[in-house]
Amino acid sequence: MSFIEHFPILQNYTYLNTAYSGLLSTEIANWRRKHDENFINEGSIFRANSLEIMDELKTNLSSVFTVKRENTFLTSNCSNGLNSVLNGMDISHRFLLLQEDYPSLNYPVTSRGFDYLEIPINANLEEQILRAIEQFKPTVFAFSMVQYISGLKMQSDFIKKLKSDYPDLILIADGTQFLGTAPFNFQQSGLDVLVGSGYKWLLGGYGNGYIFLSDAARKLIYQHKKKLSLPDVPFLSGRDYLSLTLEPGHLDSLNLGTLNQGLNYLNNIGFDVIEQRIMELTAKARIALHKKGFLPYWMMERKEQSSIMSLPLHQAIVERLNNEKILVSPRGAGTRISFHFYNTENDLNHLLELID
Description:
Blueprint: E1 14-15, H1 26-42, H2 44-64, E2 72-75, H3 78-87, E3 94-98, H4 103-110, E4 115-119, H5 125-136, E5 140-144, H6 156-165, E6 170-174, E7 193-197, E8 209-213, H7 215-220, H8 241-246, H9 253-269, H10 271-291, H11 297-301, E9 308-311, H12 315-323, E10 326-327, E11 329-331, E12 334-338, H13 345-355
Parallel strand pairs: 1-10, 3-4, 3-5, 5-6, 6-7
Antiparallel strand pairs: 2-8, 7-8, 9-12, 11-12
Helix pairs in contact: 1-2, 1-9, 2-9, 3-4
């Protein structure tokens, strides 16, 4: 199955950089042009009609990822979504964080004055998390589902066990490097909050994101707002306190509509098919790269793996990749590669040839 006709960049580059930016398909680019043509021709009429795009996206997200629609919110990006959630949490909360997690996840916590503890990411991560919970007694554990540098993936069974063993512990996750790579059921995940941007694995372009809440989180955040009177102007009728605080102001129908189109595109392929393609190619890549000494053994042992890997490549090899039009990213102390469903074994072989 080839996707070159949908993503012309694949004709000219070996694209191993979805962890930096997902691709825009020709079909979605056509939808965006039609969207703006309608805006040009219809003005305010278009804006009134375009509000249906946001409703459709909410319904789509809640259906595909099994989230209650009333607990599904739209935002401009993951950072704004997370900040909106944190703004509604009491300062007395104690946060458990992971060292070297995404700055837009950790910094909003540490800069607000919450009490927090950061633990390192290594082969004993799960044991360290459990030890920290027992000793530090956090009320919130905030983490990325997939680490943006190393590609380490939080194990789904471990997350569910955390929620089972510590039901009062609030689990907040960044799904930006995860959602779009596999089927996902939010209600069964054990998470209380999932926030993310749609421009990577969901192929949704920039300027859009999502916030998923559990029923418990819905009752927890912005508790003080529940006692305040809501605006009574007609154009805000039907909005509740969470809608007004998590989705303030105007939403962008172009950017959010692009996310909706990306979601439709992936859903038509099938998230089970996408997961299988990613897993098969990534397994081959990990074995080959481990044999060459680029991946530590403990990363190979983990049951659930992402398609993101960080390789300790010499600068001369990095320059060789650039010259051969293999798109990758410098992250941390290494060079990050990532595979999506549109990548092929030829892409992997090309990479392996150049780093030998």
